[in-house]
Predict the structure of Arginase.
Amino acid sequence: MLPRIALARLVSRTAGTSISSSYCTSSTDPSFATIKPKKINYERIGIVGVPFDKGQRKKGVGLGPKAIRDAGLIDHIQEISPKLNIKDYGDIQYEALNFQGRKVGNMKKLEHVASCSRNLSHQVTEVLDDDRLCITLGGDHAIAIGSIDGHLHHSKDVAVIWVDAHADLNTNSTSPSGNIHGMPVALLARELCDYWPYIPGMDWQEPIISIKNLAYIGLRSVDPYERAIIEKFGINAFGMREVEKYGIREVMRMALERIDPEGQRSLHVSYDIDSLDVLEAPSTGTSVRGGLTLREGIYIMEEAYGTGRLAAVDLVEVNPAIGTPEDVRRTVEAAIHLLVAACGHSRKGDIADTLDLIPK
């Protein structure tokens, strides 16, 4: 069978359209060398909701964006500084594609994932083009296909920190469940494009990011095939063992140094709430004991923001339908702590806009 890229090109030619010859271009291509990172305007923030639950089987994760907003996310961000200009772009809407009988084995609800992700990609690009830090609220982790694709359309040269208990690196051939929220990294990575068949509805998505520009933090539930791929390609993977061995400060330093050694790339943090220990965030669908503390999770966001290059953040897999009301409150509260840190809140205290009230 022809690999995904070859088939995509064949289908595009048949349809009378073209795909650039750089469809699978490495992010280390010389053409990227002249691209200077645009300074992020942290005084402008855009929020996008993606109430999407078709990447996995548990109902309720689509309620995550509403729960986080209802808990006062915008007010909490605004408390950082009255100068912040915050715009809520609302929720992503989509109509599922009609594949007319075309299917890909072991990719459940693909027509929904493809349609929602495409619309999200356009929206994320719009937010970034509007000179805003983009905050995307999931929804399950399949939405990262669209959010990272949208970031790539804006910035071209992107580094990703994937904070998660799971690697999300399966293909349709290796996934034990067929749930696409376990596949987004494999769909995005240039090096893995030949591991896929042609995927209907996904011609818009170009796997051009190098897997070497991605670092995992928080891993502790990795499938055998995922581990083999991590080792084969030398993917930067900092599991909980590394967090315990080196500490979160050193892990974050090493991650940033390896995926962006020159400090030139636009930074994307894709943050699954299940990276936190279940005691910190119980209301999530695939929790695994022994995770990050909330303090460690916040530190990751603070350091990402401190680079001055953080352009986009996903916060996913908050499921208000799981657990007791107290579990939900604790999980949503943790999500807000992470997001305000990504927007510049300092645990040392935010900087006053005026010192007029302090006597000289």
Observations:
- Residues 8-35 have pLDDT under 50 and may be disordered.
